Each structure stands twice: as C-alpha cells, then as structure tokens.
Amino acid sequence: MNLRLLSGMILLGAAAAGCQTASQKYDWGNYDPSLYAYYKDPTKVGELTASLEAVIKASESKHAVVPPGIYAEYGYLQLQQGKSQDAVQSFKQEEAHWPESKVFMEHMIRVSATPAATSSSRSTGQ
Fold it and tell me: What is the mean pLDDT of the segment spanning 96-100?
C-alpha cells in the first residue's frame, strides 16, 4: 500500500510540475502591441517611442536587464528624429548590455556621426 501511495504522489507531483507556467526572463511591457501598431501605421512612432522608454525605465528601476534590442531600436528612432547624440548613447547602452551587438552598434554609431544620415532621415519625414 505504501508503494502505491508513494507512486501516486510522485505521479501527482510530476503532473503538477508540468502545469507550472514559465516566467518571462525580460519585461517587454507594451512593446509588442506598439510595434505592431507602428508597422501598420508609421505615424504612431510616438507610441512606439513611449513604449520603448517605458520598457527601459521599468527595467532600470527594478535593476533588471533591459531586453535585447530595446536600446538599439530606441536609438534608431532617436536617429530618425534627428537626435543623433541621444541615439549614440542608446547604441552604446545596447553594446554595453549586449556585447554580441558590438559590431552592429559600432556601425550605427558611425552612421549617427555622419551629418548626411541625420539630415536624410529628417528629409524623408520619418
């Protein structure tokens, strides 16, 4: 009888462990819906920018890791808005938090430093 009880408890424990939901490693906030809305309607760039700012601030306030690519995308939006110095800082943050992005972030920093890059993004209205 004890063997049946022990087997039943093990089986019940295994079933309960299988029902446990996995927690997310990063807090993405409202990023997905705002990115989708931006892709459907590029005039919603302000909502995407606010969403990225919120994700960064929330992660930093909790001393958590900012999700990969968030600083880079935020920097790209800043670059499109002609804020090249702010964009460089965001690209450096991405590189510091995600070393595997170093080559791409160095390229984006060089692009941010060229006056033609910021003026062309302003002239296209993005």
Answer: 96
**Residue 88 contacts residue 113 (beta carbons within 8 Å):** yes
Higher pLDDT, 124 or 116: 116
Identity of the amino acid at 28: W
Residue linked to tokens 């819906």 = 33
Matching residue, tokens 């920093």: 109
Q: 16-57, pLDDT tens digit by residue?
A: 655 555 667 888 999 999 999 999 999 999 999 999 999 999
Tell me if 68 is assigned to some domain.
yes
Look up the domain containing 48 and give its range: 28-123
- Specify if 17 maps to a domain: no
Q: CB burial class (10 A; 0-12, 13-18, 19+) of residue 79?
A: buried
CA distance 81 to 19: 46
CA neighbor of 82 nearest in space, from 35, 124, 51, 54: 124
Neighbours of 47 (CB within 10 A): 16
